[in-house]
Amino acid sequence: LTATQLEKRRQAIQSESGAAEAFDPIKKLADKSLGEAPNPIRRIVSEGRLHTDPEKQKSLAARRDLFKIEALGLAYALAGKNPYGEKAREFVLAWAQTYDPDGNPINETEFPRLMKTYDLTRMLFSDGQRSEVEAWLRRMSERQKAGVRPDSSTSRNNHHSHRLKIVGHVAFLLTDPNLTRWVVDDYKRHLEINLNRDGSTFDFHQRDALHYHVYDLLPLVELAIAADRNRLDLYGYTTRQDATLEKSIAFLIPYVTGEKEHREFVRSTVKFDAERSGAEDPSIRVGEKWDPRTAKPLFDLAGY
Q1: What are 121-169's pLDDT values in tens digits?
Q2: What totals of helices (H) and strands (E) does the chain contain, helices first?
Q3: Measured by CB atoms within 10 angstroms of the end CB, which terminus of the chain is less buried, N or C?
Q4: Cβ(188)–Cβ(235) under 8 Å?
Q5: Considering the entire predicted model, what is its pTM?
Q6: Is 183 exposed, middle or buried (0-12, 13-18, 19+ CB in 10 A)?
Q7: Which of 258, 256, 267 is CA-nearest to residue 295?
Q8: Over 90: is that where the pLDDT of 1 sits?
């Protein structure tokens, strides 16, 4: 964001109740995080594990740092107080010095929160610290690229959407033209095999779940916003089959208005969905009616 854009947002927080209300939970998390120490781990273990798995629980507890980092970065940019920025730098460096990227896009999908904060605070890092963080982010992007399995369904479902989001944020953050070109080309290839003319996604048919339709689209919209900030229109791309990201978001509207309803995961082809439901994972319940409120973050970002 430019200095002018940041100043407009600061003024809005002071003068508009809606902006102040939106900023309040961010500032509260940032204030709480000022008194906490970073909790980085060497590897995040989440994808393919039940919610009761101790390693997954430990990983998700550590991963909450990435939400704290995001709040600290936004608080620094919008409240203008140095302690937020200094604490954000402490957290970012702790993760850069500890976490070893493994190329799993589901495990690493929240790292763009850290990348956005680094973008807002990088002037607070020394030259050596910037080199360290940027080399680590580049290693993360390269391992994401190396993790593509072309013959697997993960190369066309939500896994690859999250992979593109991660690599794309690194590409734009580091202003890397070669990495950007890879992201743009692969984004278009991915949409060709992921989105359908009627707005449905590969994930919707594979999992029989609007939950995964949203989870597939959300990182693509996040990537499209980052691309727009870098003068690239990914959101408007139309496939050879006349599919678009916007049509796939609109696919949800009848389910939001109540014109249609969907019972989740009933015909899923992924065995793990039934296992998660059987283990009483709150996010996966076979046969449960889809809750439209879970799509709010997607529509908020699509509104951009």
Answers
A1: 999 999 999 999 999 999 999 999 999 999 899 999 999 999 999 999 9
A2: 14, 0
A3: C
A4: no
A5: 0.96
A6: buried
A7: 256
A8: no
